[in-house]
Every structure is written in C-alpha cells, then in structure tokens.
C-alpha cells in the first residue's frame, strides 16, 4: 500500500510515517518511481508504534523494543536482552507512577467540583 493509504488507515500523518521510517521503526519498499510501498503488516506496526509513543517511550527505545515484541505467530520473540527487559520494567514503573498521580489529581478535582456544586445548591 502507498503512504497515503497507510496514513488513512492508521490515522497517522504521512510526515509521521516518513519520520518512523527515518528512525528505523518502519520499513518501506520503493517502486521504480521511488514511491514508498508498505506491506499489510505495516498497519499493525504503526498502531503499535503509536501506542508506545503514547506510553511515553522515545523513538530510540521503540526501535530497540519493536524487534522484541511478539512474533506474528503470537509467541514471544527470543531477542529481548536482559537489559532491554530491565529498561522496560523501568518504563512500566514510570507509567504506573503517572497513573497514580493522575488518579490523585482526578480525586482532588472531584472534591473541588463536589464542594463547588454543594455551595451553589
């Protein structure tokens, strides 16, 4: 599929897709005319890349992680190094802390909203 179709199917801009390719996160074949052609699996890969960015990982970490993610058959990849696993545990812990902080912030907002609502009523 061409870059425009991949962008449409994933909701990711063509500019971002070119960036992913530049960072080694996504691979495209080239037509004789130089246009990018992506395999069908690129849709899942782009979605996974987006999820990892949303989790706060940077492109270098994602580039290390992608080859270690589950293989197409659903089994775990055998190339995850102990260091990468430790880095990922650290990232997961960071995300857990962020979730806790967000829940606490939401609770404070709920208290303010409830107090303000009672003052009006």
Task: Give a brief outline of the structure.
This protein is mostly helical and 121 residues long. It has five helices and two strands.
| Count of discrete alpha- or pi-helical segments spanning 4 or more residues | 5
What is the ordering of alpha helices and beta strands?
HHEEHHH
Task: Give the uncertain stretches in residue-range form.
Answer: none
* Main β sheet profile: 2 strands, antiparallel
> Looking at the structure, what is the overall shape?
flat
Q: How would you describe what is shown here?
A:
By secondary structure, the chain is mostly helical. 63% of the residues lie in helices and 3% in strands. The protein has five helices and two strands. Strands 1-2 form a two-stranded antiparallel sheet. Strand 1 (29-30) and strand 2 (36-37) form a beta hairpin. The longest helix has 39 residues, at 82-120. It is flat, with a radius of gyration of 20 Å. The mean pLDDT is 87.
Helix-strand blueprint:
Layout: H1 3-10, H2 14-22, E1 29-30, E2 36-37, H3 42-54, H4 59-65, H5 82-120
Antiparallel strand pairs: 1-2
List the main descriptive attributes of the protein structure presented here.
121 residues, mainly alpha, two-stranded antiparallel ribbon, 5 helices, flat
């Amino acid at each position: 599929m061409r870059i425009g179709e991949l962008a449409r199917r994933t909701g990711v801009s063509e500019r971002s897709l070119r960036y992913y390719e530049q960072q080694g996160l996504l691979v495209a074949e080239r037509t004789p005319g130089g246009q990018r052609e992506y395999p069908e699996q690129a849709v899942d890969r782009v979605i996974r890349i987006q999820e990892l960015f949303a989790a706060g990982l940077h492109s270098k970490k994602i580039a290390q992680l992608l080859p270690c993610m589950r293989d197409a058959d659903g089994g775990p990849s055998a190339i995850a190094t102990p260091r990468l696993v430790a880095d990922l545990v650290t990232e997961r812990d960071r995300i857990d802390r962020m979730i806790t902080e967000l829940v606490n912030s939401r609770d404070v907002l709920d208290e303010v909203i409830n107090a303000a609502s009672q003052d009006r009523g």
